[in-house]
Design goal:
By secondary structure, this protein is of the alpha/beta class. The protein is built from 10 helices and 10 strands. The N and C termini lie far apart (about 65 Å).
Length: about 270
Amino acid sequence: MRAITITDQEFAQFQKLIHGIAGISMSTAKKPLVSGRLAKRLAHHGVGSYGEYFRLLQDDGSRGELQIAVDLLTTNETFFFREPKHFDFLRDKVLPHHRPGRPFRVWSAACSSGEEPYTLAMVLADGLGDAPWEIVGSDISTRVLEKARGGHYSLERVKGISQQHLSRHCLKGVGSQEGTFLIDRRLRQQVQFRQINLNEPLPQLGEFDVVFLRNVMIYFNMETKVQVVRRILPLLRPGGYFIVSHSESLNGVTDELKIVTPSIYRKPHA
């Protein structure tokens, strides 16, 4: 079966679609990614071109296929304890100053398949003892959220997790589950996963002590960055921390936060 190529015009249609839905700006360098990730959907529906598949999405009354396409085009790599200095900062500089009385709340605002929120859960469980805490993990992709809720991963994903964290917070699969590990139920019960599109008005989530918005804004243009951060900031408590990836910056995006160290910002107390 011959491979179907995507034309510049067809790629432009998907560029516009994903920017309109998720705020993601895809350069022409992403053309192979788009064609590669959607190729199986063309085969699944027996359509002969990317333009025909795009029209199918436009006529998708239930939006089921549209969600599949969005899932495929927005899913990005993630792993446990990615950019570890952020978790060290949380453990050493933030958690020791938390006053018990209300739950310490963290939002992982583009959590993909759950590695970031479960990393946060391990850090909070160790750092807060018996004090209550909650984590919200959100993503636009329903497919990765389903994976995240299960908390079940291949042993290939343990890279980055210390032996101490593994023995304390993870269960190694045996028998038919060999080669996998499961995040302990105590942690899973304190992590809530929700489908949230950061490019739309946000649902009622309550206030957070820390917001992680990492490795997301590199896909947004400046206008979208400004709008997304403006939506999130009211949910950050005064004195709370806003953390982006080491390759990102809020320079020019907002003047409501003060930089603590590159990639870590703080909302001033009122």
